[in-house]
Structure formats: C-alpha cells, structure tokens
Amino acid sequence: MGNLFCLYQVDQSTVAIRETFGKFDEVLEPGCHCVPWIFGSQIAGQLTLRLQQLDVKCETKTKDNVFVNVVASIQYRALSEKASDAYYKLSNTRSQIQAYVFDVIRASVPKMNLDDAFEQKNEIAKAVEEELEKAMSAYGFEIVQTLIVDIEPDVHVKRAMNEINAAARMRVAANEKAEAEKILQIKRAEGEAESKYLSGMGIARQRQAIVDGLRDSVLGFSVNVPGTTAKDVMDMVLVTQYFDTMKEIGASSKSSAVFIPHGPGAVKDVASQIRDGLLQGNATS
Fold this sequence. Notes:
Blueprint: E1 7-10, E2 14-20, E3 23-28, E4 31-34, E5 41-48, E6 52-61, E7 67-78, H1 83-88, H2 93-108, H3 114-119, H4 121-136, E8 141-153, H5 155-224, H6 230-251, H7 264-284
Antiparallel strand pairs: 1-4, 2-3, 2-5, 6-7, 7-8
C-alpha cells in the first residue's frame, strides 16, 4: 500500500538512502517520506545509527616470544550527518575495522613482554582507538569505545605461570614456617634456661634452709641438754634422717628395689662417711 501511494516509512534510530535513477539523492530521517518511484526515486537501503559492537580476536606474540590471543571489543556507530559516506564508501564495515585492529595490535604487543602486556592493556586499547578513530571518521563512523577484554596466552604458558606463582608462594610459606619454628625453639630454650635457673635457686634455698635448720637444732639441743657436743647432736640427726628415709622407701608403692646395709653399724658408717667427706672438703678449702 505504501509503495502504491509512493510512501516510505523510516524507523527510529535508522536513516534511509534515497536515489534518483541510481544516483544518490538524500538521506531520509526517521518518519514517513514520499518516494515517487514513477519519477525514478527509490530507497537504496537503510543504515542503523545504533551503537554496535565488534569483538576481534587477534593472535600475536610478545617480545619474549610467547604467543597470545588478544580479544578487543570495538563499540562504534554511524554518524547521521555522514550517512552517505558510511553507506557508499565501505562495502564491509566490520571487516575494515577488524583489519585496522589486527594492524595496531600486531604492531604494539610484540614490543612488550608478556607481563607488560597484561599491565598495559589500557595503552593497547588507546592505540587501537586512536588509529580506528583516525581511519573510520573519513568513512562516516564514530569509534565510541575500544576495550581489550582478554589476553590469553597458550595453555602451556598459563600452566607454567601458575606453577611459578605456586612455587614462589610455597617458598614464602616455607620461610615463614621455618621462622616460626625458629621462634618456638628460641622461646623453648629461653623457658628451659629460666626453669633451670629457678630450679637451681630453689635447690640452693632448700639447702640453705636445711643448713640453717640443722644449725639451729644443734644450738638448741646443746643449750637444753648440758654436756652434749655438736657431734652427738649430728649423729642423732643422721639417725633420724636415716629412719625417715627407710620409712618413705617402704611406704612408696612405685619405688624400685633398693639394697642398702641396715643395722646399728650402718648408721655409724653413714655418719662417718658424711663426716669424712666434710673434713676432706674443709681440708681442701
């Protein structure tokens, strides 16, 4: 019906190219237009003004000879004021953009090492965008945004990179573990040293207390019992200690078998041995 009355509808975000006898006439904006086909006018085609996206995957190699696949996303659109250039000058817009992307990426990435390529994604995207903007503006297209969405090295390279990272982390973990064990050993040694020091202090105080107690006992016994000597008092103390020791050995259920001489003469032998040891120590001093 529209063709019968020479009417043509152009949708929103779209422009139509009208020709008269095969020659470009004008660009039709969205709306309803009269196209008198009986006078040689016709619609050559339509051109969308919507934002379009093209994903380009380019294989190249880095400066350290690692092959990578670089994925770039190009967002572009046709300019309504240059719709005739966008329609007539390019036969395949997507292929043209892809060629420019390949050219820029394969000129930029080989100058970088693999790690630098990951770090300088924005610089690669900026270089691609500048080159596309300069080239495609002459054909009636605007480059809105260029993104490097992925840099994917070979699977063997990725595995090697992961192993290097894992080895580095294991080395750090081993160092931290060794440092922790070192600290534990140092603290354990310090604790043992402090324990032995305090144990020695306790033994020294115990012996001092025993000596002080024996001295007080000897002095007190000598005062209260006239005629006794210090030797008599010490013999009596030794006998008392001897029987206390025998009592403790007999009362303990977990003690091992101990063979010691027992009898009145045994106490005398013990006393004489202690006395001889003290005399020899004094003589040496």
